[in-house]
Design goal:
By secondary structure, the chain is mostly beta strands. The protein is about 15% helix and about 40% strand. The chain contains 2 helices and 7 strands. The strands form 2 sheets. Strands 3, 4, 5 and 7 form a 4-stranded antiparallel beta sheet that branches. It has a 3-stranded antiparallel beta sheet with strand order 1-2-6, with no helix packed on it.
Length: about 120
C-alpha cells in the first residue's frame, strides 16, 4: 500500500503524542528537567522627602514595606569651615514615618539619606 504525499503531515501530527520527548511519558520529563533558581527580589527602602530651608534640613522617611529600613541623614555644608554631619541610623519599621533633622551654621550645599537593611 502506497501512502499519498498529502497524508504524510497528518501521520506525523498523529504520531507526536506517542513520542516520549513530546509528553508521551510525563514522569520522564519531570525527573530530568532542571529548574532555574530565581532569586526572590523583595522591595526595600523608605521613601524620603528632604526639605532645605536656609541652614536647616528636615527629612521625612516613610517605609511602606514589611522589612525594617535603617536610615541616616547626611548634610554637606557649603562653607569650608562649617562641619558636615552624618546622622545616626534610625530604624523605620513597616508603615512608620520618621523625621530626621540637622543643620549647618551657614548655607547647605547638599543633603541626602542613606538606607541599610
Amino acid at each position: 500500500m502506497r501512502l499519498s504525499p498529502r497524508f504524510a503531515p497528518l501521520l506525523v501530527v498523529l504520531a507526536l503524542p506517542l513520542i516520549p520527548a513530546y509528553g508521551g511519558d510525563a514522569s520522564h520529563t519531570t525527573k530530568t528537567a532542571l529548574h532555574a533558581r530565581v532569586p526572590v527580589v523583595r522591595p526595600f527602602g523608605s521613601e524620603c522627602r528632604i526639605r532645605v530651608e536656609g541652614s536647616y534640613v528636615t527629612a521625612y522617611c516613610h517605609n511602606p514595606y514589611p522589612e525594617i529600613d535603617r536610615v541616616a541623614l547626611h548634610i554637606e555644608c557649603d562653607r569650608w569651615w562649617d562641619i558636615d554631619s552624618d546622622g545616626t541610623r534610625v530604624a523605620v519599621g513597616p508603615t512608620q514615618t520618621v523625621r530626621l533633622a540637622g543643620r549647618c551654621w551657614k548655607e547647605v550645599r547638599s543633603a541626602w539619606v542613606t538606607h541599610r537593611r
